[in-house]
Every structure is written in structure tokens, then in C-alpha cells.
Write a structure and sequence with these properties.
This protein has 486 residues and is mainly alpha-helical. It is built from 18 helices and seven strands. The protein is elongated, with a radius of gyration of 27 Å.
Length: 486
Amino acid sequence: ARVAIDPAAMERVVRAREVVDNLIREGRPMYGINTGFGRFSEVAIPEDELNLLQVNLIRADAVGVGAPLPREVVRGMLLLRMNSLLKGLSGVRPVIVETLAAMLNARVHPVIPEKGSVGSSGDLCPLAHMILPMLGEGEAEQDGVVMDGASAMRQAGIALVELRAKEGLSLINGTQCMTSVGSHALADAINLLKAADVVGALTIESLRGIVDAFDPRLHDARMQPGQIACAENLRRLLEGSAWTTHQGESRMQDAYSLRCIPQIHGASRMAVDYVRGVVEAELNAVTDNPLVLPDTGDVFSGGNFHGQPVALAMDMLGIAVSELANVSERRIAKLVDPALNHGLPAFLVKEGGINCGFMVPQYAAAALVSENKVLAHPASVDSIPTSAGQEDHVSMGTIGARKASAIVRHTEAVLGIEWMAAAQALDLQERRKLGKGTEPAYMLLRKHISYMDNNRVFHKDQERAASLIRAGVLVGTVEGILGSMK
């Protein structure tokens, strides 16, 4: 999508820049405008070197390591940096914001290594790589072709920028990398919450699960909104099903992985709600330093660049999504175990021995869940001082966001395996009427992945199931029948 700049917002940018220009003329010492950075904040910079100071800052901070960030994350960073500058509290010239908009619209995507940010002072390292092409340096990608930054800008017809006082600092002192990565992970996690309910409901049917555990009176007594919403989803998904049972019909209680789906998925829902509040605030936040207040002419140094709010939220997101995978893998294990699956053949295959069935897909799910447990260790509890102790507490928020994103990908794969296993279990039993919401979920899977009669390579099937979850096709198909789920 193309972006356009609101003229009223640009007026705020102009007013803030006038404050910066006035301060330079007065010669008043202001951090990052006419002083060095970090531990060098006490070093005064001569007026004739103020512009070089900003360029040198970008070059000094472009020390990223690792694979490039995905294109959609880079585009998110460009957009969020623009949005922050347009609040009119940063003191940059209009040309800076206009250049970012032009890059986004012309699809000039800076190549940004994924590692190197400690999350304070903001995402200095990845944002510096984002700015290099504006200066004719670094690298950028256009339509899948990576080239040097100057060539990308020239090919797009965008003029290079000569940074002036404060502008380099205003461009890189913020949380836009962790927020972009985190926003994409959050959006996918919100989809996963619904997908987990759908897949879990299909497993309930395949194991002739007891629906009394989802009675609304039971969940109202707990008063946990996430649990109440999940139980409502399950009731709607299973409406009209001839596969489910009631307590005492075949057994009195189900295992926790079935009976406690509302309590487990519901807790993750509430955690994700908290994360959403933090991220939505950060999307519209001003996170550089110092801030310029045009109404009074004041310039204040503070710590809005500190990523701690996002860091804690991303750690919580990773933990919450990990739990969706944890309980999904337990349901897979129950489906394949002849001691636990209520009469289904071992590993969901008729001719066991010559065929392994779903034995090894459960291994894959177990491996992903185990890796998630490592990734779910909070990044925000770590802090390594930087800049000779001037920056003595950092957030590690970008690491937390990248870990949460990896956990989301793994969880999509685990749920995909459960979806396949539940459908296989249904096909091994006498045909009955599925629920109003589970029927379209089953039919969607069978449209893309066939019943497994004899061993075959499952890798592509697993990828296909995960991709249908990731793209929102599963949830969209079910909601097309049920209407919006909670």
C-alpha cells in the first residue's frame, strides 16, 4: 500500500525543526545536537562539524550481524519511523520524512541484518542500516534484487539526503525494529489463538471428547475472560457434532489436554491481549531522544528509546504462544498412543509395523516444542551495560521479539501436525456428523492433504498444513460458516 503524509502532521515537523535551528544559532549545549553520544555526551562538537557528527553516527552504528530481516519487517520499520517523526517532537526537516515515504512507496527496502540491537538506546544498529541507503551507502533490495544503496535510490528516482544537526540521532534512536518484528508476530499469534481452538475442537471429536467440560456455567464461575471466550468458541465449533460425548457415557473425565483447553488457551488469550495493548501504544509512540517541544521551545533528554515495555511484552508473547504448542503436542501424543487414544490403532495407521503412521510427526512436534522452551526464556531479564556504563541497563527487546516470532512459526507447524493427526483419527472411525465449525476445518484439510494409508513423505504435507494456518485460511474458512470467533 502507498502512504501519504498528512499536511497537518508536516506542519508539526516544521515547527519542531525551527526549535532545533534556533538552539544551534544560540549555541546552547544540547545532547545529540551539538554534543557527542552516549559516554561522549560531555564532548562539545564545533558548529562546522554538526552535520558530519550525524553521518558518523549512522556509520558507527551500522554493525549488524546475521541474515537480513524479512521485507515486511523492513517496511514496517520505515513506516513506524515515519509515524514517530510525524508527531513533531523529533526536530528533523520535512525532507527526512518525505524521503522515508518515497522509499516505502518505491519499494526501496534497506538490507538490515537481524542481530546487533540490545534494545536501548532503542534499535540503534538495525535502524542505522535502514538509513544508510538515504545517504548513498549500505545496501537495499528492490523487486528481489539486492544492490548498493546509492544505486537503489538512483534507480527509484529518490534524491540522497545530507543529514543535519540531530537528524541522524532522530532516525535511529527508537524502538521501531523490535516493534515491527513484534507487530508481525502478534498479528500471527492472534490468528493462532483461533486456529488452536479449531484444531483442538477437531481433536476433541476424534477422541470422542466430553463436552460437559465446556458448559458456560462452569467457566462463568472462574471469571477468567480468556477462558470464557475459548469455551464459547469450542461450543460453537462443536455444535451439532455426533462425535462428542457426555460424562459417564464412555468415561467420566478427559485428560487435561482436552478438558482444560479453555483454561490453557484462555490464559494465552489474556496474555496476548496485554501484548496487544503494549504494541498498539508503541506503534504510535515517539521514542527518540532528546524530544523537542515546539510549544515551549524546550528540549528534554529522557529515556523513551528504552525498549523495556516491548521487551516484557515480547517475552510474554513467546511464553503464551509456546503454551499453545505445548498442549497441542500433548494432544498429538494422545492421538498416537494406543494406551491413551481410546481404541484407535497405534500411531493412527491400520498396518502398523510395516507403516509408522504418525509416529515420527509427533517426534517433529516434540522437537519444536522443546526448542520453544529454550526460546521462551525471557530476554528481558538480561542486561549488559554499554557505552562504558553510561547505558547501564538495556532491554534486549529486539531479541525477545525475534524469539517470539520464531516461536509463532514453530507453533503453526505443531498445530498443523495436530490438524493432520485429528483428521486421520476421524477417518479411521465410523463416519459421523462433525460440528458446525469443525466440518469446514476437516474438509479444508482433506482438500489439500489426503488420508495416509501407507507411509509417505509427510514433510510437504506438514508445510502445507502450517501454511494454511499461517495465511489465515483455516480460521477464515471456519469463520465463513460460523461468523466471527472470539
